Amino acid sequence: MLEEKMMKEFTEILREELVPAMGCTEPVALAYCAALAREILGEMPTKVDIHVSPNIIKNVRSVIVPNTGGLRGIETAVAAGIVAGDAYAKLQVLSKITEDEIAKIQPYKEATEFALERTDSKFIFHIVIEVTGENHQAVAEIVGHHTNVVRLERDGECVCIEGILDEEGQSASATKLEESDSLGSNQHKTDRAILTVERIVDYANSVDIEEVQDVIMRQVDYNTTIAEEGIRGNYGANIGRILLRAYGDSPHNRAKAYAAAGSDARMNGCELPVVINSGSGNQGITTSIPVYIFAKSMHVSDEEMIRALVVSNLISIHLKTGIGSLSAYCGATSAACGAAAGICHMKGGTYEDIAHTVVNALAIDSGMVCDGAKASCAAKIASAVEAGLLGLKMRENGSEFFGGDGIVEKGVENTIRNIGILASQGMAETDKTIIQMMTDVDKRAAEK
Q1: What stretches in the chain show pLDDT beneath 70?
Q2: What tens digit of pLDDT does each residue of 12-32 get?
Q3: I need a surface site. Which of 60, 128, 335, 426 has the fewest CB within 10 A?
Q4: What is the CATH number of the domain that holds 318?
């Protein structure tokens, strides 16, 4: 049994991570930063300078920005935040935009001087928005993760906004990054280093269900709603619908199809919110939907499902802590490992069963690259969920991958550590290559 202090930390991690967001979280973070800059400027900017780290470009380039009438791109996200963003709504900054405001976004882009600069920041996640009006100049800066505001300035002086930045320039949403931290991925109020698979299972088995029920059920409600919309609607490549038509209605296939469908909708303009995991809506969907689908097919109680989703979410967070917030490693892989672990728990799996399921799943799909947020994310989610479910089936049939099989090392925590090194260090050059490819494609398109 975990100590009470650690139990509270685990609960706080869930509350800190499982928050609502509307649209892909990188363009939404841009819109949030831009809305803050406009708010402290006190007037509509006539000039906007955008400075972002390369991974922001990668994850915003191809995805539709919600509530913009189907527009894409960095300038669109920033313009939407300036024109109509709610500076106090964080990752739901674009959720209340009206039709009249949507109609103003493109004209504002065309009438305003926008400059985009790719920075060589040491931080993987870095956004700086500088806005200039007729009378004032303002700057907003986000570093490390989507709502970690580290600077708000008007005419060179720090501005305090209650709940966002205090009088000493400290972020209220998260700890300010240390200069030595180049990853900038996990600067939260809670300490992710306490997470291990064994502790997560212990916590899930013993936590008072009322402590987590609201946050978990909100995730279920939001994410199943957008998954169902993805199945009904015509979004992107319609991966979810294709999976159902091609492979039937088994729980195994529905787990893949509905998770993919949530991404189909989210990546392609659906304005429904999701509850995220590790800063990502796609990961929130992947972590939760397969567990929900199996829970309904197994007819388990709500309490059993909630405890399984606690396992799923915390294991996903544990894996992503070493990987970092943005990298060339597709986050759906780690989220689907979490989902498989949650399903294993719901089936009565022990810590050892869950640990082997995680290792098996990681060995199958690790290395799937992230080439930005876009329609094909849905297909990657389906692939990752398949890998997770295969890892679980292997365990149920007495089969496993052993230490020495590639990057697998004896002990689940050792394998998780290796995945973190692979993603954050080994795939760093892959990430640069992907971003350069995207840049070259855009240059060639502009020259035509």
Answers
A1: 163, 165-188
A2: 999 999 999 888 889 999 999
A3: 426
A4: 1.10.4100
The CA-based angle 307-312-315, given to 5 degrees, is 120
Q: Give the residue from 348, 344, 362 showing the smallest Cα distance to 400.
A: 362
Is the same domain home to 147 and 216? Answer: no
Predicted pLDDT at 167: 57
Please check whether residue 88 lies inside any domain of the structure. Answer: yes
Angle of the 209-232 helix axis to the 302-323 helix axis, nearest 10: 80
Which pLDDT tens digit goes with each residue over 315-329?
A: 999 999 999 878 889
For residue 48, give its domain range: 24-158
Six token digits for residue 138: 């303002």
Mark whether 312 and 395 lie in a shared domain.
Answer: yes
Domain CATH number, residue 103: 3.30.1330
Distances (CA, A) of 27 to 63, 64, 97, 107, 281: 8, 9, 15, 19, 12
- Pull the structure tokens for residue 192: 């992710």
Pairing assessment for the beta strands 273-275 and 20-22 based on DSSP bridges = antiparallel
* Same domain as 75, residue 140: yes
**Locus of tokens 């050059």:** 429
The reported pTM is 0.89
Closest CA to 339 of 295, 297, 398, 372: 295
Total structural domains within the chain: 2
Cβ neighbours of 252 (radius 10 Å):
18
Residue holding tokens 């993760």?
Answer: 145
| Dist CA 193 CA 314 (whole Å) | 12
251-291: pLDDT as tens digits:
999 999 999 999 999 999 898 999 999 989 999 999 999 99
For residue 51, give the H/E element and its range: strand 47-52
Residue 156: Cβ within 10 Å count:
8
| 59, 62, 64, 69: CA torsion to nearest 10 | 140
